[in-house]
Amino acid sequence: MNTTTGVRHGVGESVLRPDGRLKVKGDFAYSSDLHADHMVWGATLRSPHPSARIVRFDASRALALPGVVAVLTHEDVPGHPLYGMKVADQPVLARDVVRYQGEPVALVAADHPETARRALRLIEVEYEIRTPLTDPEQAVRGEGPRVHARRIDGRDEWGNVVRHVRIRHGDMAEAERLAEVVVSGAYDVGMQDQAFLGPESGLAIPAEDGGVDVYVSTQWLYDDQHQMCSALGLPPEKVRLTMSGVGGAFGGREDVSVQIHSALLALHTGRPVKMSYHREESFFGHVHRHPAKMWFEHGATRDGKIVYVKARLVFDGGAYTSTSQVVIANGSYFAAGAYDVPHVEIDGYSVYTNNPPCGAMRGFGAVQSCYGVESNLDKLARELGIEPVELRIRNAMTTGTMLPTGQAVDGPAPAAELLERLRRRPLPPPGEGVFSLPGGLNNTTRGEGIKRGVGYAIGVKAIGFSGGVDDRSVARVRLSLADGEPVAQVHTSAAECGQGIVTIQAQIVRTELGVQQVTVLPADTRVGDAGSSSASRISWMSGGAVQGACKALRARIAELGEGTLAELLAVHGPLEEEYEYSHRRTYPVDPERGQGKAHIAFAFAAHRAVVEVDTDLGLVKVVELATAQDVGRAMNPLAVEGQIEGGSAQGLGLALMEELHVKDGKVRNPSFTDYLIPTIADMPSVPIDLLELPHPDSPYGLNGVGEPPTLSSTPAIANALRDATGLALGRVPVRPDDFTHTEGR
To answer: Which DSSP state fits 54?
Structure first.
């Protein structure tokens, strides 16, 4: 039977998301909207100091406050006192020391959220303040206090370097002999926040079997469950998680936040516990993008052939490991950019400091290194007298190019084509009227000092988990009858963070089974692990699992004999199949030279930014941010365009305004009043050119699309600003006063 005849809203169509209208109308239920009978509210007491020893703790006044149900400390953690995604080094609740401003020290449960907050203010904690380590370069050199000077997970105490990634490819001595032109530069990236609108929240309900049911917004239910089981001292069958409505993520929900704390309070009190951070607390309650200090050197022939790249990257991971080990690896792997570079020498360091913890954010380390390498490449172009876009095209990767890690790119690598498409695009005309000026009505000079600039950049990163991770995803699909018509149910634990995986799962089922009515069940831990909604992997991995389950159902249907699907289901009853999808094997890189087949696929995106700068006022207007990206197969073209627009907006934010300012280990702007993100007034036109080159190894030929736009958007804008002003501008975000100083012209 032909299962796809007449199917609507299948793969390749711009299907509207089922949650879209609800979100626009304000009717969507986020995790902060959860409620249960007899519920109490949880709240967290956090350290005001980036480094201190806890001398005395007294909660007697808080416990005496009417309405307070419980106050918990580290002594109330029944299981392992430490947790973490990669390394269990972060205390559930601080025991004797605190290592960053905002570290959780105690928990309160009360019958009203305001009562819980009042109770926090009544807890007395005496701290012995210590001098924090805040300079990542000092951490690399082994100077200053050790952030972690003890034994963790059975390992001996270590210094402040989390990981040193060392990549050596080719013959650097020979490369230096061949290079006729050498340029170098230092480039810094500030600490960016994911700035999701929905703060961390969740609801934990104690169960009769001694376990707990937790409803939470997250990116990886099973990794949360693993860390929770360890801290709670419970087996997986007693720690059950269900996805709740997520108000944005972008990497900031990979680490646990309220999960363990709400469950502890629920198990202790025997009542449902809701936790919901307020906005300021949210800035302390999740990791951020690693700030970076980087140095790059390019060596090239006079006709513009890149001979070598040297790079040194230092990423500030803050007080705990989170994902710093793999973030610095990802940044280092792609520090030579989307180019064919025969000789490479890269050293990447992630370090501990007493600054806020940093971890996953969209682009995952490759954003920082892309900014550095693309900035230095423009410097090389100026030295050579070659147009920046032409220099990029001459050196662009192709299929078969050997990466710095010694792996050949075996899928599509359309770097040159993406850049050519942008180069051919007409430039936008000059604006008219006061609103077209940088700053709009705030431009008091009326534009006498405005200069226009154009900048290009291209980025590449791996898709999916790399370095030997056994990445798998499970899906269950069920066919049954409803009112005589076939219907399908899909069940995975894939986290819907706004990227549209719920929609794509339904599209795949319609395409594979020809069933129009498809229900996607809430993601939870009653079905196998789907892995994380990160690394631009979830459509590939969970899509592959759903497709596999559907194919297994089609095989069973074919064995049942002749008849329509409805007739066969009426006779044989509901049919169900579960499928586990995995990709080809990857391998860890060699620690001495960084060589190995670490990746399954690669994604490319390019941007051309057109900016106007009022050099008298330091005001910037991004006129246009055109982008071209290979998406493999556009599973849902409308959703793909939304991902690219959103990623480009975050790149613009990093280029011009987004930064958590940290001084002496303390965050100075933990609010959306002072932490600025792009609004509709800041966003330019974002023309999108989708290139569809099917990947040979993925379901439907799709490729990850969510992260690549964040790679090239920031350096394209920075390069355009340099083109307009002639300034070096070695740091993002670029500030207004950077344009009024003459250094670096």
So the answer is: E
pLDDT band with cut points at 50, 70 and 90 for residue 444: confident
| Residue whose pair of structure tokens reads 């590939």 in the numeric block | 540
- Tens of pLDDT along 592-624? 999 999 999 999 999 999 999 999 999 999 999
Cα 75 to Cα 71, 264, 741: the distances in Å are: 11, 12, 55
CA angle at 288 for the pair 282 and 290, rounded to the nearest 5°: 165
Which residues, 6 or more positions from 564, have their beta carbon under 8 angstroms from its beta carbon?
1
Bridge partners of residue 565, in order along the sequence: none
pTM score: 0.96
Q: Quick one: how many helices (H) and strands (E) in the chain? A: 17, 28
Peptide bond into 684 cis (omega under 30): no
Instruction: Report yes or no: 73 and 57 within 8 Å, Cβ to Cβ.
Output: yes
Q: Are 404 and 336 in contact (CB under 8 A)?
A: yes
pLDDT tens-digit profile of 480-513? Answer: 999 999 999 999 999 999 999 999 999 999 999 9
For 52, counting Cβ atoms within 10 Å of its Cβ (0-12 exposed, 13-18 middle, 19+ buried), the class is buried
For the four alpha carbons of 681, 682, 684 and 686, in that order, the dihedral sign comes to negative
Q: How many CB atoms lie within 10 A of CB 2?
A: 6
Alpha carbons 53 and 129: distance in angstroms, whole number: 6
| HEC string for 689-722 | EEECCCCCCCHHHCCCCCCHHHHHHHHHHHHHHH
Question: Is residue 614 within 8 Å of 439, Cβ to Cβ?
Answer: yes
